[in-house]
Amino acid sequence: MTGAASSARASSLWRLAAPPIVWAAHFGACYATAVAACGRWSDSGHAGAVPLLVAIWSAVALGALAVCLATGSRGGAVLEPARALDDDTPASRAAFVATTNALLVMVSGLAVMFVAAAAWMVPQCR
Amino acid sequence: MRPLPPADAATADLDPPATPAPRAVRNAQEARLQQAWAVPTGWRYWSAVNNTVVGQWYVAVTLLFFLFGGVLALLMRLQLASPENTVLSADRYNQIFTVHGSVMMFLFAIPIFEAVSILFLPQMLGARELPFPRLSAFGFWAFAIGGVFLCGSLFFDAAPKGGWFMYPPLTSGYQPGVGADIWLLGFSFIEVAAIAAAVELIVGVLRSRPPGMRLNLMPLYAWYVLVAAFMVLFAFPPLIAGTMMLELERALGWPFFDPRGGGDPLLWQHLFWIFGHPEVYIIFLPSVALVAMIVPTVARHRIVGYSWVVLAALGTGFLSFGLWVHHMFTTGLPGLTLALFSALSAAVAVPTAVQFFCFAATLAAGRRVRWSVPLLFVMGGIATFVIGGLTGLMVAMAPFNLQAHDTFFVVAHLHTVLIGGAVFPLLAGLYYYYPLVNGRLLSDRLGRVAFGLVFTGFNATFMPMHVLGLLGMPRRVFTYQTGLGWDTLNLVATVGAMVLAAGFAVVAWDVVRPSRTKARSPRNPWRAGTLEWLPPLPNPSWGMRTIPEIDARYPLWDQPGLVEAYDAGRFFLPDAAEGRREMLVTSTVDAAPQQCLRIPGPTFLTLWAALAVGGMFVFATFKLYTLAAVSTVLSLAVILVWLWTGTGEIPESDDKDVGLGVRLPLYLRGRDGVGWWAMCITMLAVFTAFIAVLFGYFFYWTLDARFLREAQHGPGVAGPAAAAAIVAGSWAATVVARRANAADRARAFYGAMAAAVACAGLGLVALVRTVTAGDLDPTTSAYAATVWLLVVWCAVHVGLGIVMHLYCAARRWAGRMTARHDIDIGNVTLFWHFTVVTVLLAMAVVAGFPAAGGIG
C-alpha cells in the first residue's frame, strides 16, 4: 500500500468525524463563554456580550462546516442513488463517505443553530 | 504465488477457486482447525479465551445480574404497594434502590452490549476472533469479580445507599460506612473492564473485517458498536476521575467536594453526568444495532437509508456529550447555561428519530414482513422508546424539568427509555440470535406469551408512575402517607411489576429448559443476509471455517455460491497448518488484507490478573493498604508475565500463504499493527481522565476567586518547569532508543534506554518534590488537593514508563525484540508521547496558570 493511498483512506474516517467535532468545538466555546460571563466575570457586566460572541462562534462553526462539506465530497458524489453506495468498489465507498459527511454536516449545522438560537433567546445569567 | 493486491483494488478480483480441494484435504484442514481452536475441557475450561465461550459467560453473568436487579425492583414495588408499608426499613430501602440502579446500569445495561458484541461481532465480521481474546477474558473476569463484590455487600448490610449517582455531600460527609467505598472502588474496577472491552471492540471493527468489507459494506451493528465503544472511551474516564476524587476525599480528606475547603459538590455532578448522559446512548445504540440487524431480515429487504442510519449513530453519539447539564437544571446554574443544554437536548431527537424512520421505511418496503417473536419485541421496543423520547423532550425543557425533577415522572421516563430502548431490543436479539449459541431455537409460543406479559406489565408499571410524578410523589421515598391520591396508582404499578416479572420468568424458562426440548435450528433459520448466519449450526469452535471475501452488504443474499464456497473452505485461512490460532487483519477503510495475526490461546493468566487487580480495589475499600500494595505488585507481575509470554511473538517466517494465492506478513510493525491501535485507544481514554481532572481545576477557578490565592502556597514555577524538562528528556531518550533499535545499534539502544530510565527516575523525584517541598497540604484546600492529584497522576505515568523501559531492554536482551520486530518499543514510545504531553500540560497549568494571574 502506498503512503498516499493509505493516507487518503485514513482520511475517510476523519471526514466522518470532522463535522461533529466542529459542533463539539462550537458547543465548548459557547459553554465556556456562558460560564465565563455568568461565573468568573459575572460582576463585570459581561453577560451582554454573550449573544455577540455566540454569533461569532456560530459563524465560524458554520463556515467550518461548509469547508467540511466541500472537502468531504471530494472523490464521491453526494447523495448518490442508494444502490450506488452498496458496491465493493472504491468509488462506492467514496460516495458513501461523501453522502454521510454531507448528512453529518446537516445535523451538526442544525445543532449549532439550536445552540445559537438558545443563547440569543435566553441571554441572561439569572 | 500472487503478491498482496493493491489496496484500492482490495480483493474484488480474488474469487475462490472453481474447484474445491479434495474431501480428504478438507477433512485434514478441519481437524487441524478444530485442534487449534479447541475449547479446553475439565477444570481448564475456565482458561478458555475463545470469544464464543467468553461471550457466553459474559452474557450469562450479565443476565444473572439483571435478574438480581429485577428482584430488588420487585422488593421496592412491594414496599410501595400500599401506604406506610413495612416490608422494608428506610435504610434497607435506600440500599436496595442504590444497588438496583447501580446493578442495572453498570452490571447489566453497559456490559450486555460488550458481552453480546464479544459473542457475535467476530462472526458478523466474518472473523475467527477479536484481535485480543485474552483482553476480553480479562475484562470478563474483572467484571464478574467486581459485580459479585458490589452485589454481595447487600447481604452484609454494607451496601451503598447514596443512589446510583452517589451525590456528595450525602456520600462523603454523611455516610461513614464502607458502602460508598464499595461503590466507588468496585465500579472503578468494573470501569477498567468496560474500557478493556471498548478497546477490543474498536480494534475489532476497524481491523478484523473480512477482505472486501469496505466502510460502506459494514453491518450496521458494527457501526453502532464502533460509536458506542468510542463513547465508552470518552464517557467513562470523567467518572473514573470523579470516583477517584470522591474516594480521596472519603479516605484521605482531600476536599474536592467540600465547600469548607473550597471544593464544590457540583463538580461531582458535572463529572458524573458527563459520563451519565452519554451512558444512556452507550446503552441505547448497541441495542438499536440489534434492531438494525433484525428489521431487514424480517422485512426481507435491505435497510432503507444505510447512510442515514450511520448518520444517526454518529450524530447521536457526538451530541449526547452535550446534554449532561439537563440532569442539573435545578442546581441554580445560570439561565443561559440551561438554555444551551435545553436546546441541544431537543436537537439530539433529530438523529435519534432518523433511524426509526429508516426502520419503518424498511418494514414498509419489505415484501412479506414476518411477525416473528423478534419483530414483536422490536416493535414493542420502538413504541416504548418513542414514548420515552417524548417525555425526554418534556424534561429537557427547563421549566417543566424544574417541576418534575426528582419525582416519579423522571423514574418513569428513564425506565421507558431504557427498557424500550435496550431491554425490548435485547429480548428481540435473544430470540433472534439464540440459534447461534447452541443450534437450537427458542419457543415461538413461549416468546409470544412472554412478549404479551412483558409489554403489558411494563406499561402497567410505568404509565402510572408518570401520573404519580405529576401528582408530586418524589422518587427514593421508602413510604408515603395515605390520602395523597397515590395509593391506587402505586398498587397498579406493583401489580404491573409482577406481570412484568412473570414475562421475564417465561423468557428465563425458555432459555434454561433442557436443550432436548428445544427444536433444532436449521442453518440460517431466519434467512438473513449477514455473515453471522453463514456457518452451519451448531458452529464449531473455530468460529469461521474460512474467511470469506465480501462483495455486498448482505452477502448471503447477494453473493451466489458463497455458502458452498465457504463450506468447502475456498477462501482465506482455510487451514491451521502450524497448529496456531490465526486471523486476518485488514485495513481500516477498504478492508484490504494486511496481516495474518497469530493470537494466543487459553490461559489462566487473565483470571489471575483480574484477581490481583481486584485485590487492589477490594483491599483499598476496607483500608487494608498493605494488602492493596501487595496486590498492586502482584498485578504488575502477572500482567508483565502475560505480556512477556503472549505478545510480540517473533514468527518463524516473515509471511505465509493465507489462501487465494495471497501471502501476508505474520508480524506488522508501527501504525499498521493492532497493538499500536490498542495502545493509542487506551491512552486516549487515560488522557481523557486527565482532562477531566484539569476540568476540575478550571471549574474551581471559575467559581471562586479565592482558588488561585491558595496558589501562594503552590509549587511556584521553577520546580514544575524542571520536572517537565527532565521528563521531556526521558521522552526524547525513548524516541532515540526506538530509532537506535530500528537501526540495530545495540549499544546506542541500551545507552538511550539507560538515559531514559535515569531521566524518568529523576523526573519522578522532581515531580514529587513540586508538592512536597513547600507547605502544600492536600487536606487543606481544593486547590492543593487538585495540584497534588495532577502531580500524582503524572508521577504514576512516569513510574509506569520506567517499568516499560526496563521491559523493552529485557526483551531485546532476551532476543524477543529485534530491529525488525519492534512492536514493544513502538508501543512504549507511543505511551511516552502521551506521558510527555500529560506532564507538560499539567506542569504548565500548575505553574503557568497562577503565574499568568500574577501569583507565584
What topology does this entry show?
The complex is a heterodimer of chains A (126) and B (856).
Chain A: H1 3-40, H2 50-72, H3 90-121
Helix pairs in contact in A: 1-2, 1-3, 2-3
Chain B: H1 23-36, H2 51-80, H3 90-124, H4 133-152, H5 179-207, H6 220-252, H7 265-299, H8 306-319, H9 335-347, H10 349-365, H11 373-396, H12 398-404, H13 408-438, H14 444-470, H15 487-512, H16 555-558, H17 562-567, E1 582-586, E2 593-598, H18 605-621, H19 625-646, E3 655-657, E4 663-665, H20 674-703, H21 706-709, H22 718-742, H23 746-772, H24 782-813, H25 823-852
Antiparallel strand pairs in B: 1-2, 3-4
Key phrases:
heterodimer; A: 126 residues; B: mainly alpha; Four Helix Bundle (Hemerythrin (Met), subunit A); two-stranded antiparallel sheet; 25 helices; 4 strands; disordered N terminus
Any overview of this molecule?
The complex is a heterodimer of chains A (126) and B (856). With 126 residues, chain A is mainly α. Chain A has helices at residues 3-40, 50-72, 90-121. Chain B is mainly α and 856 residues long. Chain B folds into 2 domains: 58-517, Up-down Bundle (Cytochrome C Oxidase, Chain A), CATH 1.20.210.10; 696-852, Four Helix Bundle (Hemerythrin (Met), subunit A), CATH 1.20.120. Chain B has a two-stranded antiparallel ribbon. In chain B, strands 3-4 form a two-stranded antiparallel ribbon. In chain B, α6 (220-252) packs parallel to α8 (306-319). The longest helix of chain B has 35 residues, at 90-124. Chain B is globular. The N and C termini of chain B lie far apart (69 Å). Mean pLDDT of chain B is 92; it is low at 1-12. The chains are: A mainly alpha (126), B mainly alpha (856). The interface between A and B is large, with 56 and 52 residues.
